[in-house]
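Journal club prep, notes for RB
We'll compare a predicted complex against what the paper describes. Inputs for the flavin-adenine dinucleotide case:
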Amino acid sequence: MQARIICFFLETGLLILFFWCFSARKMDSSFNKDMDIEIKKKISVHWFRHGQRIHDNPALVDAVKDCDEFYPIFIFDGKVAGTELCGYNRWRFLLENLKDLDESFSKFGGRLYCFHGQPMDIFQKLFKEWNVNYITAEEDPEPIWQDRDNSIKKLCEKSGVTCKFFTSHTLYSPQDIIAKNGGTPPLTLELFQLVITSLGPPLRPLPQPDLQDVNMPVPKNFKKFALPTLEFFGIEPEFEEQKKPLNVFVGGETRALNLLKARLEKEKASFEQDSCQPNHQEQPELMAKAVSLSPYLRFGCVSIRRTYWGICDMYTKVHNKEPPSEVVCQLYWREYFYIMSVGNLNYDKIENNPICLKINWQKNDEHLRKWELGQTGYPWIDAIMNQLRFEGWNHHVGRHAVSCFLTRGDLWISWEDGLKVFLKYQLDADWSVCAGNWMWVSSSAFEKALQCPTCYSPVMYGMRMDRNGEFVRTYVPVLKDMPLKYLFCPWKAPLEVQKAANCIIGKDYPEPICSHRDMSRVNMSKMYRVKEKLLKADIPHCAPTGEMEVWKFAWLPPIEHHDLAHNL
Ligand SMILES: Cc1cc2nc3c(=O)[nH]c(=O)nc-3n(C[C@H](O)[C@H](O)[C@H](O)COP(=O)(O)OP(=O)(O)OC[C@H]3O[C@@H](n4cnc5c(N)ncnc54)[C@H](O)[C@@H]3O)c2cc1C
């Protein structure tokens, strides 16, 4: 009996134990299942395109936040960062930017992963093979990138991957500006400034992200994702001079931040003298060492918000009051040209470009080639084009001079042809900013009823801007011994002077490609005919806010502007 009782208790105990274990396992497995959902890993990728920096990069900050694994990537798709059209200098600069990023990530145990191919294919692989489930990128404001980004957004949606784009290449979200302006981009700079005033100041830059604890795995076979060389892409210097330029813009965020620091010191010095924008005085620094921020702003190695607030805060520190908009007006130009291109895929063309006037430009490949190669026989123009090809950068007055010369000033060649040349050589060439400036200078857009059909003289403008001729002598060395009196018009030098200067015109240096006196008269009358048509047709298009804006754009005080425009 006792044995039976013991057996009964044992059986019941076993039964209870069995049910307890079963239900505990069940509970455990459903608990785990819940946990599976809860502890789904965040494997994130930040996709660099513009915005080639770590500081003030909201998309990067979002990607690394609470992530389990993080991979910074760059995709060479044949188009990114303007690589479809650009030449040696800009390729070199781009690879330097990426190298700097790679080195920055290396300090925290990571690397920059480089891929080759179409983003759609690459992301599909990343989702499958690396289990990537979170992508961030900086929003590209230009319409040419919209298709690429929309297809990635769709792919992510289909694949259940989180995909976030952040505005930080411009001070404001272009959509906010357009919405505030009633659905269309503001047509003048003044209107644009009014709109942004009503939006309030732009956001401040973010604090430096802490990458210390971010897990950035690097596999043993990383080599296949390493940054390629110029040789890999078959890119070589197009000109001997590119191998040993006088001024070298070295790419990268590190260099960009040092330049910004130096620039702010310069701003401070000029604020203390009750002036502003040291690089914007009436005597431009054509020969300044590579200090311009534009190539770095173009690739986003330096944040536009950090630049903007750096200047504004410096002003406030010096003057103890809010800065006037004047101190950052150059940055507004950049913003304005970006906004004007929103939704306009033909912004870089004449055909089907609603803001561009159709002017009857002529084709002349020989003249175009001579202009590109710095062989026009106008030393001021040739020096600028040589500087552009060899170093990838020109001061604004230089760009202004050569673009006017090619279009409405002398050669009457379309701004579209000039734009292609700039997109090839300029380090800072931006699809929208560059096209916008070309339309402006050639009077094709941003021109109010052609009130300013100015033809800047390639002789007088040069003499005014390069007063001691140092710039021309440097970039057209064959003229280095030409006396200043003839430096900007060497064909006027008597033969003895040419011989003494070791430069015979027509042999050592070309005769002028055209007579500026004749061509500018012909071109001005053509412009007047366009103006007449324009007034009759009342075509809506962009316009400068007023004449003062036009003078400022040419970096000339009104009186000199008048002289240079009309004294042929
Ligand atoms: C035909 C032509 C094409 C141009 N193409 C470009 C281009 O592709 N990319 C580019 O950044 N600039 C372009 N510019 C504008 C201008 O010449 C350069 O921005 C300027 O020379 C850069 O020098 P900086 O950095 O010392 O400028 P700063 O005078 O110090 O100005 C600070 C920043 O403001 C912006 N900025 C200044 N002027 C302009 C302007 N007119 N339009 C738009 N942004 C401006 C640039 O980002 C610049 O770095 C072009 C001008 C002309 C006439």
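Talking point for the session: Residues 279-280, 292-294, 297-298, 330-331, 333-334, 337, 395-396, 399-400, 403, 422, 426, 428-430, 433-434, 437-438, 441 surround flavin-adenine dinucleotide (CB under 6 Å).
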